[in-house]
Amino acid sequence: MDRQRSLPIIWHEAYEADIGAHVFPTRKYRSLKERLVREGVVKEADIRRPEPASNEQVGLVHTAAYLEKIVNDDFSWQDNMILEVPYSPQLREAMWLCAGGSILTARLALEYGLAAHLGGGFHHAFPDHGEGFCLINDVAVALRVLRAEGAIERATVIDCDLHHGNGTAAVFQNEAEVFTFSIHQQNNYPMYKPRSDLDLGLADGTGDAEYLELLRTHVPEILNGHRPDLVFYLAGADPYEEDQLGGLSLSRAGLRQRDELILQLAAGAGVPVAITLAGGYARRFEDTVDIHFQTVRAAGRQLQRGRG
Ligand SMILES: [Zn+2]
After folding, report:
1. Is 133 in contact with 114 (CB distance < 8 Å)?
2. How far is the C-alpha of 8 from the C-alpha of 14, rounded, in Å?
């Protein structure tokens, strides 16, 4: 395969933090990487490994008090309960690397038109606290870094994780240059949903046809209206009908169509896309990996088509 044409893929072995027996499968990152290599989507040697984000970069989103709490490992029992994963220095290292990975993914997306991060999408982290498995908000950090550098002016977050992108909405609520869009199950975590620029809260059991129709209606409007320099796409696997935490009813074919649709619409609008994985808790672990695999493969095909 022509390396110039291949999709940039970003991953690091240290994403796999040990959080004990947990519904959040951190081994999915490595399993996905291995499958992409096995099926020839990427060569092992071509995988790009990020540097950790700097504290200054993370500080573009998170408060000094919160960063101090993290660095000093000063997490209370309540903090860990809200975070829903036990805090550890290893988790911190994984999340700083992951934020660095989303920064790198955004840069490569601007260069190549598309880039896929085998990680990231920790959209429940607020400026002053982490929650819902999310210590820091990698996508928000990447967007603030690129905006501060002048690499982009405007960006759109397309958040298709099953859960509302509460942290991201809170970060950018007074920043008109970043348009936040979340399509999610309404009756699910988080209870408190700060408003995104566009929220589509879906009824329990919503399936492929309605979901895809909503994207076909709203995504072109968003891209034409906001005219971003970059899209961050959170390709959550948890709208899947077999998800343990989710209550939507998308099939695997429907999720594949979702990915293709978002990528086609962005390409049609001439907007580069940085992909992150976000959630995925299928009853069968292999299904989560497969859904993410299909997302990356769709991106690879889109890139080939775009340059064909
Ligand atoms: Zn989720």
Report:
1. no
2. 19
Cβ atoms 52, 96 nearer than 8 A: yes
**What is the rounded distance in angstroms from the CA atom of residue 276 to the CA atom of residue 264?**
17
CA of 234 to the centre of ligand 1 (A): 10
Q: Could you identify the residue written with the tokens 């609008």?
A: 269
Domain ranges of the chain: 23-307
Distance CA(32)–CA(14), nearest Å, equals 14
Q: Which architecture does CATH list for 23-307?
A: 3-Layer(aba) Sandwich (3.40)
Q: Do 273 and 263 contact (CB within 8 A), yes or no?
A: yes
Q: How far is ligand 1, taken at its centre, from the CA of residue 3, in Å?
A: 33
Share of the chain above pLDDT 70, in %: 98
Measured in angstroms, how far is the CA atom of residue 160 from the centroid of ligand 1?
9
CA distance 98 to 121: 9
Burial class (CB in 10 A: 0-12, 13-18, 19+), 65: exposed
What pLDDT is stored for residue 1 in this prediction? 45
Distance 163 CA to ligand 1 centre (A): 4
Three-state DSSP class for residue 275: strand
Please report which confidence band the pLDDT of residue 21 belongs to, taking 50, 70 and 90 as the band edges: low
**pLDDT above 90 for 97:** yes
Mean per-residue pLDDT over the chain, rounded:
95
Q: How far, in Å, is the centroid of ligand 1 from the Cα of 188? A: 10
Q: What spacing in Å lies between the alpha carbon of 245 and ligand 1's midpoint?
A: 8
C-alpha 97 – ligand 1 centre gap (Å): 20
Q: What is the mean pLDDT of the segment spanning 48-64?
A: 98
Q: H-helix or E-strand containing 180?
A: strand 178-185
What are the tens digits of pLDDT across the range 126-162?
Answer: 999 999 999 999 999 999 999 999 999 999 999 999 9
d(CA 224, ligand 1 centre) in Å = 27
Spacing, Cα 159 to ligand 1 middle (Å): 10
